[in-house]
């Protein structure tokens, strides 16, 4: 017997996460987890990553890397958001 009101489990989970206000924190964590893959070996010079008000804060131990990342900041924001599949951040601040 086939059910006519069947829905995909992925959509139901997404609706539940939105209802419980868990979608945004989950996307933020996904973005933080994607940081090492996007940055590659240079990620070892970064620490204390956190997101506040759609801004990613990153502590850097290399001044040269800071300068390089500041020049490619917009591309980095786009790449990270594409990895997550949502607009999680709009800016990155390097400290």
Summarize the structure in words.
A three-stranded mixed sheet has the order 1-2-3, with helices on one face. It has helices at 9-19, 23-39, 63-71, 73-84; strands at residues 46-52, 55-60, 91-94. It has one domain (26-92): Alpha-Beta Plaits (2-Layer Sandwich). The mean pLDDT is 89. The protein contains four helices and three strands; from the N terminus they run ααββααβ. Helix content is 52%, strand content 18%. α2 (23-39) packs across α4 (73-84). The N and C termini lie far apart (60 Å). The chain is an alpha+beta fold. The radius of gyration is 17 Å and the shape is elongated. InterPro entries: DciA-like. It holds the Pfam family DciA. This is DUF721 domain-containing protein. It comes from Bacteroides thetaiotaomicron dnLKV9.
Provide a count of the helices: 4
Radius of gyration from the alpha-carbon trace, in angstroms? 17 Å
How is the CATH topology named? Answer: Alpha-Beta Plaits
Report the principal-axis shape: elongated
Distance between the termini: 60 Å
Strand order of the largest sheet: 1-2-3
Average residue pLDDT: 89
State the total count of DSSP E strands: 3
The second-level CATH architecture is: 2-Layer Sandwich
Organism: Bacteroides thetaiotaomicron dnLKV9
Protein name: DUF721 domain-containing protein
Pfam family, one: DciA
């Amino acid at each position: 017997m086939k059910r006519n009101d069947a829905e995909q489990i992925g959509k139901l989970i997404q609706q539940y996460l939105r209802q419980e206000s868990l979608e945004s924190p989950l996307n933020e964590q996904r973005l933080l987890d994607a940081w090492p893959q996007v940055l590659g070996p240079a990620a070892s010079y970064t620490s204390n990553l956190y997101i506040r008000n759609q801004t990613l804060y990153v502590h850097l131990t290399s001044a040269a890397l800071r300068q390089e990342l500041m020049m490619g900041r917009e591309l980095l924001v786009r790449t990270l958001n594409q990895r997550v599949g949502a607009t999680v951040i709009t800016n990155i601040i390097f400290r």
